[in-house]
Amino acid sequence: MEVLKMEVIQSDLGPDVAIWRIEGELDSNSIETINRYFAQILEGNRFHTIAEMSKVTHISSAVVGEFMGCRRLLAERGGDLVFVGLNLDLKTKLNHMGAIRIFKFHNDLRTAMNHYAWEMQLKPEKVWLSFPSELNLVPPVRQLVSQIAHQKGYGERDSFRIETIVDEVCNNAVEHGIPDKMRDIELFLKIDCKKIEIEVVNLSDPKKINSLKAISKSILGTNEKKLERGRGLSLIKMLSNDLAIDFSGKGTTVHVTKLRED
Which of 94, 121, 128, 165 shows a CA-CA span of 20 to 30 A to 102? Predict the structure, then answer.
């Protein structure tokens, strides 16, 4: 029988996050030790606990039940208990026990910490890209942004609407911009678990800028005169929660905010 080892250390994520390192075999004889270390976690108000278990070789059903009780106490305090680093055999065993429906599992500590920062601290992920002012490059750009949203947990409807928004904004940037080998169209993306912000910047065509300003005023409601053109901007406004257009300088900046719905 392998010697059971445990320690609770403070996470860099904040005072309410603990990393619970566990090594060895976890059976009914381990429950007293589990309760002792878990009491330290509660006393320290570290209600978000990451159990690092890459060196655990066995988990009994009694221990799984004990961990369920620990998670329930943490959840009552607005926290959670997640498992990290379990080998495939133990994951399969827990899956058969139904634990997969109760606990979150992460492959490594870094992934678990990133997930916490994303879900609890609303830490956004940022992406920047640039591409030449060519219509044939818009489809891969819109698909990339949609895939990022989907990978970060946004649903099919949200991902489709985000893809449509990017398509319309980038098509407008190409249509109303001028090709410039020294300056590409730029897309800035900031996404967290509640919203996504998209900003597209292009070099405006002086011959089209006045028309674009008139269309934007009509769409954004700052001009009582409604124009027939501007269906793309109308669609963007309908699908988004906020739309702003800035014409300062030679460039045009379109900023869109879309809240997560599903």
Answer: 121
Contact between 200 and 186 under an 8 Å Cβ cutoff? The reply is yes
* 83, 131, 206 from 146: Cα distances, Å: 29, 17, 31
Proportion of the chain above pLDDT 70, given as a percent = 91
Cα 220-251-257 angle, rounded to 5 deg: 45
Q: What is the DSSP string of 110-131?
A: HHHHHHHHHHTS-PPEEEEEEE
Q: Give the whole-angstrom CA distance, residue 145 versus residue 150.
A: 9
Residue 221's SS3 state is coil
- Distance CA(207)–CA(225), nearest Å, equals 21
H-run or E-run covering 246: strand 242-246
What integer is the mean pLDDT of 212-226?
A: 64
Asked if 72 contacts 81 with a C-beta cutoff of 8 angstroms, the reply is: no
Identify the pLDDT of residue 224. 45
Mean pLDDT on 193-204 = 91
Dig out the tokens for 50 from the structure. Answer: 């990451």
Strand (E) or helix (H) holding 17: strand 17-26
pLDDT tens, 224-233?
444 444 577 8
Pair 192, 200: CB distance under 8 Å? no
Say how far apart CA 240 and CA 12 lie, in whole Å. Answer: 35
Q: Given CA atoms 73, 46, 114, 96 in this order, what sign does their dihedral have?
A: negative
- pTM of the predicted structure, to 2 decimals: 0.63
Q: Which domains does the chain have, with CATH numbers?
A: 5-119 (3.30.750.24), 125-259 (3.30.565.10)
State the DSSP H helix or E strand holding residue 212, giving kind and residue range, or none if neither.
Answer: helix 209-220
Tell me which residue of 254, 251, 121, 252 sits closest to 197, measured CA to CA.
Answer: 254
